[in-house]
Structure prediction request, 231 residues.
Amino acid sequence: MTSKDLVNWRMIGHAVADITQINPRNNYDRMEGASRGIWPGAIAYRHYRFYVYFTDPDFGIYMTSATNPAGPWKPLTQLLQAARWDDPSPLWDDNGKAWLVATNFADNYKIYLFAMTEAGTKLLKNKSIVIHQSKGSEANKIYKINHYYYHFYSEVTNDGRMPFMERSANIMGPYHEKKQLINPAEGEPNQGGLVQTEKGKWYFVTHHGKPYWDGLEVSVLPVTWCNAWPL
Prediction:
């Protein structure tokens, strides 16, 4: 979808137009993948190309790319063939090195950081580390902003699922500094991502963690920076 104000949106296409690329069970005449298929992922832009990373909880981590977000998008590349992974997010560092963060919820919600090839099409599995683990930790995004590496995630607290940010001067951590981003009374934002406009303003595009009959509500929240933390 595309927007010029983050409020009014229109559909322009699909990064995965045919989900039987993942598995034939997703075809309309079978529909054996209820609550499966494409789970939340991330979109990135680098060197005139758009990249989308996502997981299928039964089959692993996938990516595709295109020079135009309306398509055509390349056939899916499977980066990891393994069940029970979710919420991948890529980062290309200033030196061109590529990274991917994702949660293995089969292994007590450990969040892994993988090195990737610069093209972003292959994980370097021998160069992976666990950068975080907490109760239900997922919803990953990773950024480099003003010399800090920021890892966004959410976890389950006594007040419900809450978004957090942790940061480090090194992409591989350790990520010792941590901050909760929102007051529990403000309605449990969950997955999402930071957006900086051309005028320098920051926003957080998020869906909330409590589903209703018509799905998960989506909000655009203003972001302010204080002591190098987004609030």
Observations:
- The first strand starts at residue 39 and ends at 46.
